[in-house]
């Protein structure tokens, strides 16, 4: 009889260990998914930062050029078009940053598995 009880106790322990291992595997898979999402986010942030810096650099160059043209008193229709393009570029950059900022920083946690 004691053999059967110890076997039963061993099976219960084995079953509990098996459940722990399965849960650990699920947790590790979720961590891997989180790492992949974090890497994708970091890539997007880098892309947005690079694009924003390039757009702002181009806009700064346009503004400097236009300032020089205004100071020289030689503003042309082409200069007005450049000013309009600079404004549109700036607005596009602002819209991109607003869209990025609209993404929630911390998504809702996943629903825990049923026991």
Sum up the structure in keywords.
115 residues; mainly alpha; 2 helices
Q: Give the % helix.
A: over 70%
State the domain count: 1
Summarize the main sheet.
none
* Overall number of strands: 0
H/E series, N to C? Answer: HH
Structure class: mainly alpha
If you average the pLDDT, what whole number results? 80
Instruction: Outline the low-pLDDT stretches.
Output: none
Shape designation:
rod-shaped
Q: Give the percentage of residues in beta strands.
A: under 5%
Cα gyration radius (Å) = 30 Å
For the record, give the distance between the C-alpha atoms at the N and C termini, rounded to a whole number: 32 Å
Q: What is the count of DSSP helices, taking H or I runs of 4+ residues?
A: 2
Q: How would you sum up this structure, described in words?
A:
This protein is mainly alpha-helical and 115 residues long. The chain has one domain. 83% of the residues lie in helices and 0% in strands. It has 2 helices and no strands. The protein has helices at 2-72, 77-101. The model has no long low-confidence stretch (mean pLDDT 80).
Please write out the topology:
Elements: H1 2-72, H2 77-101
Helix pairs in contact: 1-2
Summarize the structure.
This protein has 115 residues and is mainly α. The chain has helices at 2-72, 77-101. The chain contains two helices and no strands.
């Amino acid at each position: 009889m004691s053999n059967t009880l110890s076997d039963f106790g061993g099976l219960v322990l084995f079953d509990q260990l098996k459940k722990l291992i399965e849960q650990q595997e699920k947790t590790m898979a979720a961590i891997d998914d989180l790492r992949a999402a974090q890497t994708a986010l970091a890539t997007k942030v880098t892309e947005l930062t690079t694009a924003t810096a390039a757009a702002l650099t181009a806009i700064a160059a346009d503004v400097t050029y236009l300032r020089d043209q205004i100071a020289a008193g030689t503003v042309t229709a082409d200069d007005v078009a450049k000013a309009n393009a600079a404004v549109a570029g700036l607005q596009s950059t602002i819209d991109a940053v607003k869209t990025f900022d609209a993404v929630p920083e911390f998504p809702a946690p996943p629903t825990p598995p049923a026991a």
